[in-house]
């Protein structure tokens, strides 16, 4: 046993591998992809933390043979997973505000919402979505455990319960005489470990003629684009419609409709209610899942193989550049970059540094791989031969922003969907 491993054991609270599916309880879990032992992808390191090895947890994705739900195999303790207090306020993201407003106005018109209705949002943050209903005189209630954003919501007139939503909170609200005409939960379904307790809360609080809508990243996009760098310990689930149907059905909720959204690089908006009535659009999407094989094992196994292929090709490509004496930097000190770099496990010195436009990240280090984060200006003052763009889904935008790097003779690279040089027109 090395000194390093002793330090890890001393500082790492117990995490555990699940033995049964978090949704259906089935205990046939097939490993689809093993991304190795990884730090928490968002946990950037301060310089003084470099002397201590940070906690690493297995990052492995398994498929339940019974219900077809893709999920991470490890339960990282919540005090570690959500222990860092990110003062994240949704209202600072303009694209999200426009998206939310449109959604709210559509719902008001379609459902004929008014003063007699109640709209409840789970993970309501600073009230960025619910305030659109308040403006139209529709009663709302936000529920969010993050105190800072919740207080900001209350200040702008969005009543908010500061708590984790689930069966207990829903039961309490119903005892107070509340029932929801509309329930909304955006980007939270993947983050809740005890998913049955959570969904049961919807079944309890939703009025008999009400609807609930969930927005979440769609596993079909994950598989098609090979976006394995969106897999983190915090994302317990990667949902297909096929896997959602038994989960919702267990709590008396029916899948009625689904819609593809462009936000967050490919999401789905799912509508459920207490009565059966599947839209044609939803039936078509489920047929597409069947055709793609999302209900079986082979499609996922193929995904796992493609991912390890990307890693091998990236190692080869960057290794060849280093042999030629070329230098390489990376762009974007975000969670997806951390997942990719830690999985790639490149030889030390392959990548010199990571640049980021966010000045709060500069001076810190990427978790696990411990690459220094430098100001984006370094690409011009001390350019490397190559720049690996980690947020590959924004590659075009970043290439346009960093035109000066190109003028200095730099070449842009990306790793997904396969490692390549980016042609600049
Ligand atoms: Zn299952």
Automatic annotation (TrEMBL):
Domain C-methyltransferase span(s) in chain numbering: 263-417
Name of the molecule in the record: Class I SAM-dependent methyltransferase
Domain Methyltransferase putative zinc binding: 21-82
Domain of life: Bacteria
Species assigned in the record: Aliirhizobium cellulosilyticum
């Amino acid at each position: 046993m090395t000194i390093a491993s002793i330090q890890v054991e001393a500082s790492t609270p117990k995490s555990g591998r699940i033995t049964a599916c978090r949704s259906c309880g089935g205990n046939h879990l097939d490993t689809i992809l093993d991304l190795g032992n990884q730090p928490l992808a968002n946990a950037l390191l301060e310089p003084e933390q470099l002397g201590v090895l940070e906690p690493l947890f297995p990052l492995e994705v398994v498929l339940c043979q019974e219900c077809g739900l893709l999920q991470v195999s490890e339960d990282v303790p919540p005090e570690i997973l959500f222990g860092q207090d990110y003062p994240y306020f949704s209202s600072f993201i303009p694209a999200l505000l426009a998206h939310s407003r449109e959604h709210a106005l559509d719902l008001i018109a379609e459902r004929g919402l008014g003063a007699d209705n109640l709209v409840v949002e789970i993970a309501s943050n600073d009230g960025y979505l619910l305030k659109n209903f308040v403006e139209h005189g529709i009663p709302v209630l936000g529920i969010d455990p993050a105190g800072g954003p919740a207080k900001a919501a209350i200040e702008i007139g969005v009543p908010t319960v500061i708590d984790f939503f689930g069966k207990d909170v829903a039961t309490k609200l119903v005892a107070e005489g509340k029932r929801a005409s509309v329930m909304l939960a955006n980007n939270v379904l993947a983050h809740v470990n005890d998913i049955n307790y959570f969904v049961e809360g919807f079944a309890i609080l939703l009025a008999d003629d009400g609807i609930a809508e969930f927005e979440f990243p769609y596993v079909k996009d994950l598989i098609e684009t090979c976006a394995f760098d969106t897999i983190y310990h915090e994302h317990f689930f990667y949902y297909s419609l096929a896997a959602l149907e038994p989960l919702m059905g267990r709590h008396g909720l029916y899948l009625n409709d689904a819609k593809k959204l462009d936000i967050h690089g490919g999401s789905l908006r799912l509508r459920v209610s207490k009565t059966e009535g599947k839209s044609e659009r939803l039936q078509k999407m489920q047929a597409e899942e069947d055709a793609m094989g999302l209900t079986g094992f082979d499609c996922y196994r193929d995904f796992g193989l493609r991912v390890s292929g990307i890693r091998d090709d990236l190692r080869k490509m960057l290794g060849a550049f280093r042999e030629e004496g070329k230098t390489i930097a990376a762009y974007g000190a975000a969670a997806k970059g951390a997942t990719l770099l830690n999985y790639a496990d490149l030889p030390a010195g392959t990548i010199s540094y990571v640049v980021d436009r966010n000045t709060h990240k500069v001076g810190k280090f990427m978790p696990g791989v411990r690459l220094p984060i430098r100001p984006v200006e370094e690409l011009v003052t001390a350019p490397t031969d190559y720049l690996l763009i980690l947020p590959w889904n924004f590659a075009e935008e970043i290439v346009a922003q960093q035109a000066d790097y190109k003028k200095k003779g730099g070449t842009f690279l990306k790793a997904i969907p396969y490692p390549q040089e980016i042609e600049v027109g």
